[in-house]
Amino acid sequence: METKPNFIVPLADASAGLSQVGGKGASLARLAAAGLPVPPGFHITTAAYRRFVAEHGLQEQILAAVSTATPDQPAMLEEASSRIGKLFAQRAIPAGARHLVASCK
């Protein structure tokens, strides 16, 4: 039986790791687990990101945007980031994901 991936994880979930929620998310989870003040919230997981990219066929466009960017040229990194941001902003969030996020309020 196939299991449904977790697209939403509580921010303070101590099991939220790098591969599931990314570097910033994993750091916030560790801070919360250590008892440090972290605002309440939730992570949108890397599984949700991958699904969004796949459903909208964005992988090639994302790779094209970063193909000319290099770490020693911040302006090119900013341009690639802006192009990728626009790709995401122009697509609708799938209804199931919108429902999950709305239920976290």
Concise overview:
With 105 residues, the chain is mainly α. The chain has one domain (8-103). It has five helices and two strands, in the order E-H-E-H-H-H-H.
What would your notes on this structure say?
The protein has 105 residues and is mainly alpha-helical. The chain has one domain. It contains 5 helices and 2 strands, in the order βαβαααα. It has helices at residues 18-33, 46-56, 59-67, 74-89, 95-103, and strands at residues 8-10, 42-44. Strands 1-2 form a two-stranded antiparallel ribbon. The longest helix has 16 residues, at 18-33. It is globular.
Properties at a glance:
mainly alpha, two-stranded antiparallel sheet, single chain, 105 residues, globular
Q: What is the CA-based Rg, rounded?
A: 16 Å
In total, the number of strands is 2
Shape: globular
Q: In DSSP terms, counting alpha (H) and pi (I) runs of 4 or more, how many helices?
A: 5
Structural domains: how many: 1
Instruction: Write down the secondary-structure element order.
Output: EHEHHHH
Instruction: Trace the largest sheet across and list its strands.
Output: 1-2
The mean pLDDT is 87
Spans with pLDDT under 50 lasting ≥5 residues? none
Q: What is the share of helical residues?
A: 55-70%
Assign the structural class, choosing from mainly alpha, mainly beta, alpha/beta, alpha+beta, or little secondary structure: mainly alpha
Cα(first) to Cα(last) distance is: 31 Å
Strand content: 5-15%
Give a short account of the largest sheet: 2 strands, antiparallel
